[in-house]
Design a protein that fits this description.
The protein has three helices and nine strands; from the N terminus they run H-E-E-E-E-E-H-E-H-E-E-E. With 205 residues, the protein is α/β, with parallel strands linked by helices. The longest helix has 23 residues.
């Protein structure tokens, strides 16, 4: 723990609140389907095995550093691990392990800043370094969920990301569209190929 030397900026408070809202929304969605709540790690959660000599941001569980080349870092806003049922109407069908990284996008970052995040995510996914805090996740499905303010922002991000190696893992939605009713079973998640998808598919009628 450490004491801040000043007051957080309003945009910082808003960003952290949206992270918490996203977590609570996903948890409520799981409960509505009688599923176990996800296991979460949030951006500020500290790795207590990290040396006190490191900068505070480097002591976080979600801090990843890759020597490269190219040298890069990755610091997701949150990550969750959940067991996704393959068939909600047939428990015997089993579940798939899903690890979802979250970027809470407040439209405050430019294209250069967004581009700067991509090499770190590419390394994180390809090297599967999340096994440090989620062991036994070799076969997990990986997604990078972006929660944005507007669909205009989503279209802009998709245009920027569509040719990047991480594009296939990305899903986008707006904070307004993300509700306990829609979060898991409604096609609110926009992919860079233009299609909308859900996280859990409801049984066909």
């Amino acid at each position: 723990a450490r004491v801040s030397r000043g007051d957080p900026k309003p945009e910082t408070i808003h960003h952290r609140l949206q992270i918490v809202r996203t977590k609570l929304t996903i948890d409520d969605a799981c409960r509505s389907l009688n599923l176990a709540c996800s296991t979460w790690i949030l951006e500020q959660d500290r790795d207590y095995s990290a040396s006190d000599k490191l900068p505070p941001s480097h002591r976080r569980i979600l801090y990843h550093a890759f020597p490269g080349p190219p040298k890069s870092t990755c610091q997701p806003d949150a990550v969750c691990r959940m067991s996704v049922p393959r068939d909600l109407s047939n428990p015997a069908a089993g579940t798939s392990d899903l690890i979802g990284f979250f970027e809470i996008d407040c439209s405050s970052e430019g294209r250069k800043q967004i581009a700067g995040k991509l090499p770190g995510y590419a390394a994180l996914i390809s090297q599967r370094t999340f096994r440090r805090y989620f062991p036994n996740s070799d076969q997990a499905i990986i997604r990078l969920f972006w929660v944005c303010h507007t669909w205009e922002r989503i279209h802009s991000l998709c245009e920027r990301l569509k040719d990047d190696p991480v594009a296939a893992f990305c899903r986008f939605t707006t904070a307004n569209d993300l509700t306990p009713t829609t979060a898991l079973t409604t096609r609110i998640w926009h992919a860079t190929d233009g299609k909308r998808r859900e996280i859990i598919r409801l049984p066909s009628r």
